[in-house]
Amino acid sequence: MELLIKNGFVYDPINGVNGEKMDIAIKDGKIVEKVNERRAKKIDASGMIVMPGGIDIHSHIAGGKVNAGRLLRPEDHFKDVEPKTAVTRSGVGYSIPSTFTTGYRYARMGWTTVMDPAMPPLEAKHTHEELSDTPIIDKASYPLLGDWWFVLEYLRDGKIEECARHVAWMIKATKGYAIKLVNPGGLEAWGFGRNVESIDDQVPYFGITPREIIRGLCKVNKLLHLPHTIHVHTNNLGKPGNYITALETMRCVEDLADDGKPVIHITHCQFSAFKGDDWRTFESGAEEIANYVNVHSHVTLDMGQVIFTDTTTMTADGPFQYTLYTLSGNKWTNHDVETETSAGIVPFHYKRKSYVHATQWSIGLELALLIKDPWKILMTTDHPNGGPFIAYPRIIAWLMSRKAREATLKKINPKARSRSLLPSIDRELDFYEIAIVTRAGQAKALGLKHKGHLGVGADADIAIYNFNPETMDPSKKYRAVRRAFKRATYTIKGGQVVVKDGEVLKHVDGVTMWVNIQLCEPCEIEVNENLRRRFKEYWTVEFENYPVSEDYLAVSHPIPVKADV
Amino acid sequence: MMVNLYPLKEFRLPVVAECINPDIFHGKSLKEIEALEAWEGNKKKRLGDLFKVEVENTGSDQEATVIKINGDVSCVRRIGASMKSGEIIVKGDAGMHLGEEMRGGKITVYGNVPGWAGSMMNGGTIEVHGNAGDYLGAPYRGSAEGMKGGKIIVHGNVGREAGAHMKKGIIKIYGCAGQFVGFRMKGGTIYVQKDCEARAGACMVDGTIIIGGRIESVMPTFTIEGLRKKVKVEEGEVIEAPFYLFIGDLTENGRGRLFVAKEPNPHLSHYEKFL
Description:
By secondary structure, chain A is an alpha/beta fold. Chain A is 33% helix and 21% strand. Chain A has 18 helices and 26 strands.
């Protein structure tokens, strides 16, 4: 099928296209030089913005933990119900929507690729079952490896190459995409009711520190040539004064960077940018983090923006979630402690009038605005921890309009308002920069070669929004920006029109991407022998039932990578 | 304005009809009321397909709208949900979620109601002359947003978890109550005139529960505070009889007050030695 998008204002930062009026030609799901103008179906995008499909580097949309959240919160489903239509299934859920609703809602906003950032290897099958049931969008998942016994043992013994082989096997077995570290060392400690306080604390019974884990896996990542860097949720997350931990985490891999390429991704950085000694002296550490990131090129961040709403926090960081439970007094559940990680889930209501919550809101935006290079800071809400992903249009409006920020600032806690850096920041992002923080930058950080841009050969994942940048000023008309991004006029996925005027027209299956690592020499036997023995001793599943086979994925899309080991 | 509704048949599938609400009926003609949407099972229906509607117009727009439902509507859910004013009279049994999130006005049922009557209510009055089911005035499962105001009067018995998560308002039960009356209560008053099953006030933090009949047992996490000669239920309703006063639930550091009548509960007399 051929498709021609005519006369739109195209924003394609990877190819340096900044709002030029041009046509985009699509054939067989890819972007091509040109198509037969008479035969192709035409879409008139005059007066509209054309961008690559949105990408989300960090959004908890699938897996055991997300499902436990669904079970924990029937009231979350009760208040948000979507009836079925001729093409879509019905669904429920506001902060933790059901899988089908997740896919439809992302597509309606023009997002076409989403990364699930926390997959306990033991629950990889569950995660992939849910990902397979998430329609339209392409997706991938990061296995949690920062607290994995084998990794800890190999790194303690300094066996980087063996560790790399093991990680390669794990990524293949779980059909994962990148190495995820959550509170490295802390989760293993949580299994014994403890935590680590800094990146130089010893992990109980393993004689290793978080610093060694981060550095070790960073080296492993380089040996394996994975498309994404290591994806790190820092230690001490959500604790006042933790910006120091975040800075130390970034500093500890400084020397591993070469030719200015990023080697570490600090995720939901807002939660790691707290200053102060306790909750009373709590304030923003965004400036310190921004100052560091502005002069270093080995790191990328994502925001983890907070939205004032009732949401569900869920991370693989059990000790942090326990602290949150004791702070909020809400119901909670601990999950996956028996697996390679330990997750926790706490419903949470971010309130405008709360000093801490309002400051958190401010920190996210301060980070995004103070970091000068938009390629280094990506837009997320850490869905659903900071707020559900359906709030992205509101964040875009805050980033693009000082007026929008001031309107919200007026309504927040007065102490938070007087301490916020936002009134002193004049910067307003333009559509080119928005395209970077929501698409191009995300694709680049993830190493997705065929996504996040509209060059010839790219996947034809395109979003068209009804906003005319020539006649309208996004800084003044921020409500129109919000409306435009809430309901994409067209979402095109793999060359097919799936959404028109915010309504899903077609149910298509997105692919599940995973990295197929090819090692220099076969080492499967060695890894397996060691693993098999340990499985017999410790595991609740048979070794043969542990890996996810390729036919388990609805639409498998392996990305081949050649490793150095 | 007075609207009479007569069910056209015996409903066998659940009907969801939140349109039966005086605020929505107000100022509408017969045709308009008949055209309102309701669900029967998974089919969208007009209210006129399910009920015979009669409108008596008094001519004055100022007067509150009264809706009278004549017949068994025990399958009709969400009657009077979110209503702010006016009155609903049900001559028969009503369905689940009666007066959910109600803000004002009055609902009277001359029959029984099942679960979640007055759920998450904010104001107004619900009076049930028969029995009420479980979760009277309590929020939907999983939620902690309990009753925030208003009044519920039940002349018969109620099921379990009446007034769970309640914050404000009053529930008066002139019959017996099931387990977990006032579960996780944060404020307000619950009065049970007759007997009460166990675990009254479990995890309560604040508020008042008054039990006039026999209670199986008081939770061990409650401590006795004293004996009171009389207890005030609300303005103009005082019970002149000796009551034990318990404070709890101590597992939640709660300061909730649990009054239990002395006479029907001789098995609690051993608490007196702690006074």
